[in-house]
Amino acid sequence: MLAENYHSALVEQIKTDDFSFRSGRLTVHLAREFGFCYGVDRAVDYAYQTRERFPDRRVFLTGEIIHNPHVNEKLRAMGIEFIGHDEDAVGALGQNDVVILPAFGVTVGMLERLDKRGCTLIDTTCGSVLNVWKNVRRYAEGGYTSVIHGKVWHEETQATASQAVAYGGRYLVVFDRQEASLLCDVIRRPFADADDAARQAFIGKFGGAASPGFDPGRDLERIGLANQTTMLMSESLEIGEMLKAAMLERYGAAEMDSHFQAFDTICSATQDRQDAVVALLREQPVDLMIVIGGYNSSNTCNLARICAQSRPTFHIADPDCLVSAGEIRHRPVGSKAEVAATGWFPAGGPVTIGLTSGASTPDNLMGAVVAKLAEFARPAA
Fold first, then answer.
1. pTM of the entire structure?
2. Most buried one in 3, 151, 234, 244, CB count within 10 A?
3. Beta-bridge partner residues of 99
């Protein structure tokens, strides 16, 4: 069933042909790593198996299983209901119900509520996410505050932060280099007891991204690094180096081990896809890049960020965004809204396009995009 819904014979053929497709004046180069990663493939597989295993029981998802609207709509069509943040829906669950936990995981609080309802739980949490949780728990038990590079509104980061609190620890989420720089300033120059205004300004900035009762004077003396697995990995590494340098300046090399810890929580699949698109841009003279994936998919957005640094880039949610050779719907890097653009596809002469997709995008969508591009490149009848 999975192969029928998500496989693409065209994509398989392109892989065989050295990840390149040629038709008339069109050349398409695929990144050598793209699409479903192991964790996503496993999560979707578990969801399909759950529906098959419990045909006569109500099956729910706590939220999107992955950030791909195409896949989530397929699951809805199979009769799987989405709970989301509906507390009444959680309260209405019973022992005969089945609940699937998504690849991002769920917060400790949600897991406890579901456990109290007595329903059957199918856990599809990605192994890379579990690795982050393991280290966050280690930080909490050692008295270290977890500094998480991530998006505070993202399900995975919320679940990771809840692990720190559940094990008696504290956390602070930083979104980018700018926020990390503010944090480094406070680490280097802690607030004086009388500097209440600066302390309150810091709490106002990070209050929604920090554990309850967070005290920068107390909670930044010992920190451990973690990250949302789908963030831009080069940025995660840079933020880690920034914080390490700040702690080194404050405490000195002799005291570093008791004030700073960092374990490798980088997802290899995310890194592989980012490395592959960097290699594609370096090795192939593409005119433009197309990145396919849900607009709320963090890893897809970061692939688009990488591409946009050197090429015209179009992040599209699905093949329907390719309206015609004259029009495309896409979400520009850094924007929160989809826009329509015209004149995006070269009208004449050879055209070379680079193509990749996020870890939650199935191959059939990649194949459909290639087929549309080939159609656009054909000469008018």
1. 0.90
2. 151
3. 60, 121
